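Sample pair:
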Amino acid sequence: MIANRKLGRVEQALEILNRCAKTWNVVTISRIKGPLSEEILRQALDLIQHRHPRLNSRIVGSLNSLRFQTEGTPKIALRVVNKLDNCQWQEVVHEELNEKIDSSKGLLRAVLVHTLSEDHVSYLITTVHHAVSDALSCVQLHSEILAYSHKIVSGDPVNPVVSLSALPPIEELLPKWTNGFRGRICGMLLFLRLGFQKIWNRPETLGFEKYAPVAKRRCGMVHRQLDSELTQQLVNRCKQEKTTVQSALCAALMFTVARKIGKGKRKDVQLSCLSYLDLRRRLESIITDEHMGVLASPVMGFHTIYANTSFWELARDVKQHLETVTKHSDVFKMILMSKELIKFFLAVPKEVSATVSVSNIGKVNIPKVYGSFELEEISFAGSNSLYAGVFATNASTFQGKMLLNFVFSQPSISQDTMETLVNNVVSCIIEVCDLKVVFTEKELSNS
């Protein structure tokens, strides 16, 4: 299928990030039990490349005239790595997070990591250009790859794969009022309003432990898991407190940063929180989960933790803000300004975009068993080297267990600092599942 066209504004912005900062591509990691070989995976990748037009495309042209082009696109790149220990998949993920996509050749690459210490256990790691996919799309893509792999290994006939229709630019899927001059004005007014709120609230951040120009920044990652019991306790407690898991994760990250910032000080702490919301159910056109595209939008909130602010009070405050933004359609306005925001942070690399950031796709609704293959874990990470000083996590829940990938820009935040912060977040979640947590001056001075 020929699916050539010009990139939309959001797609252009994400290609700029890929070229200039190796940032914001989506890395998805699956732990798979079963006889997944290079030969089987190669065939499955060929099938999904035929099924998804954008995976059979590449990006050509200068930054001022970028286009998707189908002709001349090679097969999806695949490499195989053998690792002794089952934790060494994280080394491969670090490599993928810090390698930009050569978009002139393709928009997806894959790595199959064989674990030598365990029989028939492997990791499938894909890196997809964010201009053509988001985390939900990538999770669904892994499910499709395993489904095709099952058919191939079992000898079942693979019916002719029907190519999906290519999605238009996200701007054309948004409500009509966002198009044209009115949409640009609404986006610009939101941009100015956020700028005013940032000046007025002066949110504190982790800042820079060490500064480096954009070209020398790297993306680090710390991986953590909440077992099924703790994950369910968190879900239940959120229901009891009339809030959401997304809001609780935001609160956990903000409390952790506030404790670090406020150590030894007696003051209120003002913070900013970036959340990512799925647009699929909010669009006028029906977009199914199988369609690949960037269909998520950021939402910025400003919050203050006072001396007597409880954890669940903060979580409810985040929830209320997200609901208000959705009702007032700001969720659409933010994505309209993505190109301007990206250019701003590239031009002002010492600016910290937010105190914390949470991207949570929630419960992953894909099968666990694919014939002789069993999907044991699946998680994702958005590469981030540009946005320094931000405490960010990418969350997914599969088979009752929450997986958290904390990504950060180095050297603005060191590995040791991030490890400590992540451990404190997990401790905070454990604590709030059992006890009512209140942010106190004593806690500030002792933490």
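Residues 439-447 have pLDDT under 50 and may be disordered.
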